[in-house]
Amino acid sequence: MRFLIALLLLAIGCQAPSPTHDQDGHEHKAPHGGTLIVLGEEAAHLELVLSQSGRMTVYVLDAEAENSIRVTRGELTIQVDGKPILLKAHPSELTGEKVGDCSEFQGDSSLRDKPPFQGTVFRIEVQGRSYEKITFKYPEGNE
Fold first, then answer.
1. pLDDT (tens digit, 9 = 90+) per residue, 98-135?
2. What's the pLDDT at 33?
3. pTM of the model
4. Which residues fall within 8 angstroms of residue 48, CB to CB, at 6 or more apart?
5. For residue 119, what is the domain's CATH number?
6. The total number of structural domains that make up the chain
């Protein structure tokens, strides 16, 4: 029985998103399998997920990249190769989120096949702190 449980845990672990490490070797895992973008000194994270069709989703996450954090913005702009991409709040009815109190943003990026790129998050306020011009690489992130 223990062998079956260990085998099951191993199989589940093999499907988990790959971890990213910050400068101190602290490990974070992107819960949706995307690219992590750290805000400040590990105060919060953004997770960017890019679908094959070019749909871009950004999740606002806590310092450990485990739990969602709602923000008051109705939209988020990310610049990729000099082109701004507007992502609009995508509230979840299941969690009671609404525009202006939301942790997920979506939009069409016209990026196909997940090409590597450099991006900039223009501005976002998370838990009372403002972050501007956060640069990152896709798919590496900025940790």
1. 999 999 999 999 887 768 999 999 999 999 999 999 99
2. 92
3. 0.80
4. 34, 35, 37, 56, 57, 58, 78, 119, 136, 138
5. 2.60.40
6. 1
